[in-house]
Amino acid sequence: xxxxxxxxxxxxxxxxxxxxxxxxxxxxxxxxxxxxxxxxxxxxxxxxxxxxxxxxxxxxxxxxxxxxxxxxxxxxxxxxxxxxxxxxxxxxxxxxxxxxxxxxxxxxxxxxxxxxxxxxxxxxxxxxxxxxxxxxxxxxxxxxxxxxxxxxxxxxxxxxxxxxxxxxxxxxxxxxxxxxxxxxxxxxxxxxxxxxxxxxxxxxxxxxxxxxxxxxxxxxxxxxxxxxxxxxxxxxxxxxxxxxxxxxxxxxxxxxxxxxxxxxxxxxxxxxxxxxxxxxxxxxxxxxxxxxxxxxxxxxxxxxxxxxxxxxxxxxxxxxxxxxxxxxxxxxxxxxxxxxxxxxxxxxxxxxxxxxxxxxxxxxxxxxxxxxxxxxxxxxxxxxxxxxxxxxxxxxxxxxxxxxxxxxxxxxxxxxxxxxxxxxxxxxxxxxxxxxxxxxxxxxxxxxxxxxxxxxxxxxxxxxxxxxx
Amino acid sequence: xxxxxxxxxxxxxxxxxxxxxxxxxxxxxxxxxxxxxxxxxxxxxxxxxxxxxxxxxxxxxxxxxxxxxxxxxxxxxxxxxxxxxxxxxxxxxxxxxxxxxxxxxxxxxxxxxxxxxxxxxxxxxxxxxxxxxxxxxxxxxxxxxxxxxxxxxxxxxxxxxxxxxxxxxxxxxxxxxxxxxxxxxxxxxxxxxxxxxxxxxxxxxxxxxxxxxxxxxxxxxxxxxxxxxxxxxxxxxxxxxxxxxxxxxxxxxxxxxxxxxxxxxxxxxxxxxxxxxxxxxxxxxxxxxxxxxxxxxxxxxxxxxxxxxxxxxxxxxxxxxxxxxxxxxxxxxxxxxxxxxxxxxxxxxxxxxxxxxxxxxxxxxxxxxxxxx
Lengths: 469, 373
Description:
Strand content of chain B: 15-25%
Strand order of the largest sheet of chain B: 7-6-15-13-14-12-10-11
Number of strands of chain B: 15
Helix content of chain B: 25-40%
Shape of chain B: elongated
Number of domains of chain A: 2
Distance between the termini of chain B: 79 Å
Radius of gyration of chain B: 24 Å
Helix content of chain A: over 70%
Number of helices of chain B: 13
Oligomer: heterodimer
């Protein structure tokens, strides 16, 4: 199931909220667990067993780590948990990739298994691993109640698309959270904002990307290609951060506080800053569980370089099982190293507009390694950006696309900055306790919600016009 | 305070919409979309396992959402407010016009089709001495170009028409006469067809190409068939604030009694107008009963002239005038009629032929090959 669907909004959500709040406290984790399983199984009726399996495995391993704390057995349990989870991920996400590469290198012809990718496997395996690791390191106490643990693993707000919630972040909250009305209202606000970002903004600009990325050679132009990447940048940001907003908002409605996953990455003035604002939970996970254990920067520059490259190779491949994603990770790795060595100092001294343009430029180009299934297509598109192929600078289609989407693009640009949040925050601070101030604030929310519903109903609009032509 | 208001408003909103949806009955057919709406799917373990059961329930909830059509219209209004200039392949044109987009053309297919018509005309001339005229009607995007949004990425229809002129000796270019009358009601505002008036101007231009003088408007009695016509563009764009169109019939004086025979005797009637369509959404089909494989019209004229029309739906509103000039007319739609038109013309002693399509449809048509049989 997805948040941006009518069945979630008008059937699932009322049901789970209703049941949750009329139930006594000791039943609440169970309700969350049950509904989360239902939520997941709705889209993944077969592979839901995989997630249950991962849950049982790590519950057991957590128990083993705790029981044998301080001995070698605990370490074995830890390694076993990591190995099992990575194997699960490796088999279901990377088997085609691995086998295809073995075939290419060894000249073999092993058939590819073509296993369908279970939804959210990249997220929940990382979450269950964080449990065993955090318990081993003493950053969190083992969760004795398997239902509560199951609720953590399957928690529907963040199961499908993150943020990746480390166990230590919510360990206390699983057992001791106290829902409160302010937090609930906060959650609603957050959820509706995220919903609007995804349905009204991301989906709309996504249409523009679809059109511009599939142009006939006769219609293509250099500026259209750049516009295309601008559209893609907005689409992926508003889609992903919208989802994170919805996850955080839903979490709040049930008394959970998750960490932020996006901090307005497009205002960054360096790639270093960009990656501190983009998909924060992934960066944190790799930092805590790969970079630091490998020594981080505490074992000299050579080791630090090695650790950085390893983390970025993993970051790249985490995003998808093909070489273009690995290259995407490496692309940023190289830039980050250069920035660390000397570029960052230059950027800090430069005019903020310059460093901002530098960042946006590098991000725009990076999509050529990310937005296309095939590396060849990505490289061809990149070529068009820089004049290859002899396309005109712009044409009528470019202007028409700009005219048609101009207002939307302005909205997207403004929404990529904290301006809206700051204005809303100040308004609520000043007028939130007055009747008309509350009314204004809520009218905006209702408007966003109503428009989102309209867009969602329209999604199956499919008029049949055949006989007319 | 705003927090409490948020919570209560949200619960109220969610609760009301959920309840309303539970209580509204399930619809089976959507007039607006001209399709059957998703019904509650049948359960089967197979369907559950392969995901189709839950996917169908998702579709069911969306298709059956209360006041569906209003929500769809609301979305379009939102897009218009943001300055969007097209939706569903239709421009939001000036003066209330919804104009069909014509932004790509498959040139090789277009040229192939011109070739088929050229061959047909050639054969008709050589074998039977039958003159063949071709009218490729431009779409509203050309004739009403002033109403297009700025920078509309349109195909150059004039270029396509020039190409046709070069390749087809009997080509009749009606774009000029349509442009001359562009401030009149010559195309529907919510549909991709031309109005009867637009077809009338094209008809007169065709008469001139045959060496005849144009007929005055007074030669026809006008009858308003409907003033609540919402056409294809209305549905595609789902801009529900658009005003409806008026459909007018032009009755050619003195060509009664008419006999209209659909599909070799399947249905025989005495009128060109299938008025039952006026009660439905697809009102344009009132002309010649939507698209039939072959229609044979006998008029009250006794001039021995017989016309063969090979056509798409644009011709349906054109024939009303053409009946004034001929004793018999044969109207053929190549999507359904696949036997040799040339042989047919020879058997029936046809004296003239007309190929009449709208330019966009003609360029994409895959059935013109059958003309060469």
